[in-house]
Amino acid sequence: MRTLGTVGLGLCVAAALGAASGDATKGKSVFAGSCAVCHLADSAAAKMGPGLKGLFQRAKLKSGQKVTEANVRARIEQGGSGMPAFKDMLTDGEKNDLIAYLKTL
Asked: What is the CATH architecture of 18-102?
């Protein structure tokens, strides 16, 4: 029973911290439909927005913030620096899938 309680607590903490538990394969489709117009997935070179290859291996986002799931999610949701906000355009599941995909780049 303790193990189940510990797992449940861990899942609650992960959810509270905005940890992505998405599907990278689905996230690739989200990227193609919503992000690829402005961002490259296979390069760090800029298109309209910065290339995203190796995003989660970088120390900082272009904004200067540390690269974390929470900060990437905030940028996706709020937009900024010419990027539109996707808070109401993508579901939470799509955002999780997208973050899972971005981690594979």
From this structure: Sandwich (2.60)
Asked if 76 contacts 90 with a C-beta cutoff of 8 angstroms, the reply is yes
Residue 76 to residue 3: CA distance in whole angstroms: 35
Q: For residue 5, count other CB atoms closer than 10 A to its CB.
A: 9
pLDDT along the chain (105 residues), means of 10: 44 47 97 98 96 97 95 97 96 98 98
Which residues, at least 6 apart from 41, have a Cβ–Cβ distance to it below 8 Å? 31, 35, 51, 52, 53, 105
Tell me how far apart the alpha carbons of residues 37 and 5 are, in angstroms, rounded to a whole number: 44
Domain boundaries, the chain: 18-102
